[in-house]
Design goal:
four-stranded parallel sheet
Length: 555
């Protein structure tokens, strides 16, 4: 066992004395030592309850003969960090989480890990660490929030509605009193935000990858079944330790192909196009954006969960969850069913008895929303290395669009113009210097896209950025433009009034200027320096790579 390095033999008497200073008995020290990495926090609604999940997981570990040892991890609430300097730190936190989990696990020589994340960057950060460390590991997330109930209509609410109401109030379509009424009920429980936003996308995909037990992505945070699943995860880590099943045995290339396939079927957040390549990088698997389009071309989109539609993760849970969607997709032989999972069984064995219980939530394979996937990668002279759009959340009228560019050098400037009524129907808003280096930190543009939607322009206005979007974003929101402006990318050469042509079905995005004009603009182009050049963001900007490769850090 790994832990023998800190507990076995006379030479480790000093180490054992430190365990005993914390109250460990000889019997506890002799058992496998399991790190329970708990991202509980009092500033993140998706994490406020993770002490309950950690306790259940520790109970499971003890029942199965191990010794649980709880250690911390940080978490950022992207909703609270949205629209100000705090968002610079969100993607950065993914790398900090991965590094800190590696540090704690290696320093103390745990025999296995139970990883307890829930929100956006914590799930991929922990999975990156699991692949890097490669000791037996399992993920048990905190679960999704239930949707809220509107006071102004019959609709159910999520966080994305609140951001859109800001635009609606600015346009005179809602009163401030109405907004506050909705604010009081939009987020009624703890848990990750209730739609197929980034957190729930990654919680579902951790299940698809095989690193979490079935149900991890969809069982609501407030259900007793979530606590039960945590106990099962605690028991199952002991089986993984016993049988020496490690993350790199599970997160093989075909497992990532399964994840990309299900990403398309579910209509997950565009952030998955950052996180899956980053996790794969740590597992020694290479993913590029081109493979995403190849998979999308043959994978039907079966789910329109918020923001693409008006259903939520709890509805997906009641319809049979991720196994039910996988069983539909498997009918077209689109999944690698022989991949090993944290259950100790293969994907095929896990979904053998799964059933689609509600065809209005999970479309049958014969009647998909579309024959192609929910995410598309576009390329062209504005994004030679690609950019990403959540196709399933784009209105049909905006799948093909041409319009004049209105260029902004920051998110703040764009928000002020949108709320100030300066964006007209047909415009293409371009926000640059918000990429991994230029931001630094590749901020999410939920505030400007929500303002556009809230003002009723989501069927008339597109937004392009080298930043990224919240999973809650809807509309023709095209992010991850690579190379980014700060790296000399062509998005830095766009001028006000340039006609931008977008063709999502054909995977193309172009600014309609000649190659000669593009070359002339490049001759005098000097990229701007990162907006913040101190602290952790300074180090991040120097090491971070392109969004097209997952924005991983390389020295």
């Amino acid at each position: 066992m790994n832990s023998d390095k800190v507990k076995s033999g006379v030479s480790k008497a000093p180490h054992r004395s430190l365990f005993k200073a914390m109250g460990f008995t000889d019997e506890e020290i002799q058992r496998p030592l399991i790190g329970v990495v708990n991202a509980q926090s009092e500033i993140v609604p998706g994490h406020i309850h993770l002490d309950t999940i950690a306790k259940a997981a520790k109970d499971g570990i003890r029942m199965a003969g191990g010794t649980p040892i709880e250690v911390p991890a940080i978490a950022v609430c992207d909703g609270i960090a949205m629209g100000h300097e705090g968002m610079h730190y969100s993607l950065v936190s993914r790398e900090i989480i991965a590094d800190s989990v590696e540090t704690l696990a290696k320093a103390h020589q745990f025999d296995g890990l139970v990883l307890i994340p829930n929100c956006d960057k914590v799930v991929p950060g922990m999975l990156m660490a699991a692949a890097r460390i490669n000791i037996p590991s399992i993920v048990i997330s905190g679960g999704p929030m239930l949707p809220g109930k509107s006071h102004c209509s019959e609709k159910r609410l999520s966080l994305t509605d609140m951001f859109e109401y800001v635009g609606a109030e600015a346009a005179g379509n809602m009163t401030e009193t109405d907004v506050i009424e909705e604010e009081n009920s939009a987020c009624p429980t703890c848990g990750s935000c209730s739609g197929m936003f980034t957190a729930n996308s990654m919680n579902c995909l951790s299940e698809v990858l095989g690193m979490a037990l079935p149900g991890n992505g969809t069982i609501p945070a407030v259900y007793g079944e979530r606590v039960s699943l945590a106990k099962k995860a605690g028991m199952q880590i002991m089986e993984l330790v016993k049988n020496d099943i490690r993350p790199k045995d599970i997160m093989v290339e075909n497992a990532f192909m399964n994840a990309l396939t299900m990403d398309m079927a579910l209509g997950c957040s565009t952030n998955s196009m950052l996180h899956l390549p980053a996790i794969a990088y740590e597992a020694g698997v290479h993913i590029n954006l081109d493979v995403a389009n190849t998979i999308s071309a043959k994978t039907p989109n079966l789910c329109h969960l918020a923001p693409a539609g008006h259903t939520f993760i709890v509805d997906l849970y009641e319809a049979g969850g991720i196994p039910a969607v996988m069983s539909e997709i498997a009918k077209k032989d689109l999944l690698h069913l022989d991949c090993m999972t944290a259950t100790g069984k293969t994907v095929g064995e896990n979904i053998k008895n799964a059933r689609n219980l509600d065809h209005s939530i999970i479309r049958p394979i014969e009647n998909p929303y579309s024959e192609t996937g929910g995410i598309a990668v576009l390329k062209g002279n504005i994004a030679p290395d690609g950019c990403v759009v959540k196709r399933s959340a784009v209105k049909d009228a905006m799948l093909v669009h041409e319009g004049p560019a209105v260029v902004f050098e920051s998110e703040e400037d764009a928000i002020a113009a949108i709320l100030g009524g300066k964006i007209k129907k047909g415009d293409v808003v371009v926000i640059r210097y918000e990429g991994p280096k230029g931001g630094p930190g590749m901020r999410e543009m939920l505030s400007p896209t929500s303002a556009i939607a809230g003002m009723g322009l989501d069927e008339d206005v597109a937004l392009i950025t080298d930043g990224r979007f919240s999973g809650a974003t809807r509309g023709a929101a095209i992010g991850h433009v690579s190379p980014e402006a700060a790296e000399g990318g062509n998005i830095g050469l766009v001028k006000d009034g340039d006609i931008i042509a977008i063709d999502i079905p054909d995977g193309k995005i172009e600014m309609k200027i000649s190659d000669e004009e593009l070359a002339t603009r490049r001759e005098n182009f000097v990229p701007k320096e990162p907006k913040i050049n101190s602290g952790v963001l300074r180090k991040y900007a120097k090491l971070v790579t392109s969004a097209s490769t997952g924005a991983v850090l390389k020295a």
